[in-house]
Amino acid sequence: MVQRKRYNKPFYKQFLRLRKNIQDRPKLFKFKKQKWSKFQQYSKNQLKIYRRFKIKDQFQLSVSKFASRGNSFQRKFRNNLHERKIFSLFYGKLKKTYLKQHILKSIKAKKSSNSSIDFRYNILKFFESRLDTVLYRANFSLSMKGASQLILHGHVLVNGVSVKTKSYILKPNDLIEIAYNTKSRNLVQKNIDRSNFWPIPPKHLLINYRTLQILFVYSNSSNLMPVFNHYLNINSVITNIKKY
């Protein structure tokens, strides 16, 4: 019997190519092949206390020190493509069509409303309002994939109703709960125990770890600067989506 070729590369190899431990996966530190050693050391350095708690402004302008370096079309294309891939992988390997649809929609909404709020803020706000993102941010799951599995198997309730769509967009004051059965609660409790409450959940989520409830209290004053544990150039993501 002829074996089929695997055209999709393993999930973690994409982290190696992009040189970033997206989603802070601890499993990366268990790989023993030599090709992972440098990447593991780099990731450990990023977990040092003074770097871990440093605020990373996602809205900063990315300007090169030297005007003649990094400005070729080929390098700009590569950088923009890498930033878009990092953004997509962080939110659960989203398809380019999905990203393009909602990023362009956020930009158009900003132009039509004439609001003073930065459209980059609206883009992050949309993706941070996804149900799977909120579960991951609250440490109810150890990864985006784990969060989507909790949702698809009916372990999550929103305002008392079971929701099985991982891309469900939450509204302010929505209440997220874990289903009232032993299996669901044990799954989430194990994830919380293994996470050691790191990374720290954002302030727009009010979490009760005893009752396993999350109150989504998003507002325009929510601080979205440190939502990633690494720098991400939002402008590069938008540029890649618009042009390609």
TrEMBL record:
Q: Per the UniProt entry, what is one GO biological process?
A: ribosomal small subunit biogenesis
The superkingdom of the source organism is: Eukaryota
What Pfam families does the record tag this protein with?
A: S4 (PF01479)
UniProt keyword annotations, A-Z? Mitochondrion, Ribonucleoprotein, Ribosomal protein, RNA-binding, rRNA-binding
One GO MF term? rRNA binding
Keyword RNA-binding assigned to the entry: answer is: yes
Q: Residue ranges of the RNA-binding S4 domain?
A: 129-193
PANTHER family cross-referenced by the UniProt entry? 30S 40S RIBOSOMAL PROTEIN, SMALL RIBOSOMAL SUBUNIT PROTEIN US4M
Q: What is this protein called?
A: Ribosomal protein S4
